[in-house]
UniProtKB/TrEMBL annotation:
SUPFAM superfamilies: lambda repressor-like DNA-binding domains, Periplasmic binding protein-like I
Keyword Isomerase: no
UniProt GO MF annotations: DNA-binding transcription factor activity; transcription cis-regulatory region binding
Classification via InterPro entries: HTH_LacI (IPR000843), LacI/GalR-like_sensor (IPR046335), Lambda_DNA-bd_dom_sf (IPR010982), Peripla_BP_I (IPR028082)
Organism expressing this protein natively: Thermomicrobium roseum
Identification of the protein by name: LacI family transcriptional regulator
Length: 352
């Protein structure tokens, strides 16, 4: 069927008739309702393209008292970890009419600007990524009656959330290094919240718990918390290797810092993995190029699922006040930087 010509505008009823579905189904597709079957959604989108249907976004939003916009708040946008989460969010919204307003938190003043965006006349809901949801945030969301989902959340946050078991990820890394014969295992971590650097991350807690479970000595001098950067990894390793009894293995809280550790090892004339075993965290793209053993966190999948949960809140599939909580368990990806490739290389999950 050809597109209509002249001044006659294609309506939602035209789309429904040609697609063989009800008007309500077309409306649900436009609103991004995840309950619509994939085949039905694809057929409706194909008919809209065939007929040249263009929804009147503003009028439709006003009629539903919605903005068709979502607020996304995340720290340090330049970090690959957060870019991947953002790509997952985009994938989930691709077949909806939702756009998002992005707020990044790189300076303390950015928090006020982000909170100011939590307004029902600006957005329909909020996606908060890897951030401490303070009482101020909770009060603002409650006041505006906005649904919110937290990706990479603190387990105790009272909102729908995707929780990554970072403590288990650290345990996988430390246990693996211990199995390779290392007893002096250090950690170079990063702050989970750049504005609350004294807060202990779940990775660091998992590192400590793993050492205790393995019967290895817990040495305070083996713990470093450095900036989330290559330079942070360089600084951390130089500091650790100046100790009277330096470590033989290091678990690093991000692949970005681990890249710095590898660079610093070369500067110090250390062979990785013969002199020093290194395990990173996240499994960003460069980790494979570096041959970096790391703990894989499915970043894009986390962003995609968090956005889907928010869409379920907005569509009514999740009732007001109903919370969805989903856990993600990391996996260990073995490459050459730990010295084990060729023996137990591959992916190891928490159940193994």
């Amino acid at each position: 069927m050809a597109k209509r010509s002249g001044s006659s505008r294609v309506t939602i009823r035209d789309v429904a008739r040609v697609a063989g579905v009800g008007v309500a189904t077309v409306s649900r597709v436009l609103n991004g309702d995840p309950a619509v079957a994939a085949a039905t959604r694809e057929r409706v989108h194909a008919v809209m393209a065939q007929l040249g249907y263009q929804p009147l976004r503003t009028a439709r939003a006003l009629s539903r008292r919605r903005t068709d916009a979502l607020l996304v708040v995340l720290p340090l946008l330049t970090r690959f970890f957060y870019v991947e989460i953002l790509r997952g969010i985009e994938e989930a919204l691709l077949e909806t009419n939702y756009a998002f307003i992005l707020r990044t938190l790189e300076r303390p003043a950015d928090g006020s600007r982000a909170i100011a965006s939590v307004r029902r006349d600006l957005v329909d809901g909020a996606l908060l990524v890897s951030m401490a949801v303070t009482p101020v945030w909770l009060a603002r969301l409650e006041r505006e009656r906005l649904p919110a989902v937290v990706a990479d959340a603190d387990p105790a946050v009272p909102l729908s959330r995707i929780v990554v078991d970072h403590a288990e990820g650290a345990r996988l890394a430390v246990t693996h290094l211990a199995r390779l014969g290392h007893q002096r295992i250090a950690v170079i971590d990063r702050p989970d919240d750049p504005f609350a650097e004294k807060r202990i991350s779940r990775r660091l807690l998992g590192y400590r718990q793993a050492l205790q479970e393995l019967g290895l000595e817990l040495r305070a001098e083996y713990e470093r918390v450095t900036p989330f950067s290559v330079e942070g990894g360089i600084t951390g390793l130089h500091s650790l290797m100046q100790l009277p009894v330096p470590p033989t293995a290091i678990f690093v809280g991000s692949d970005t810092q681990a890249w710095g550790v590898l660079r610093a090892a070369r500067q110090l004339g250390l062979d990785v993995p013969r002199d020093l075993a290194v395990v990173g965290y996240h499994d960003i793209e460069i980790a494979e190029l570096l041959g970096l053993t790391t703990v894989r966190v499915p970043m894009r999948a986390i962003g995609r699922r968090a956005a889907q949960l928010l869409l379920e809140h907005l569509s009514g599939r999740l009732a007001p006040g109903e919370l969805a909580v989903e856990w993600v368990t990391p996996e260990l990806v073995v490459r050459r930087s730990c010295g084990a490739q060729g023996t137990d290389a591959g992916v190891e999950s928490a159940s193994e």
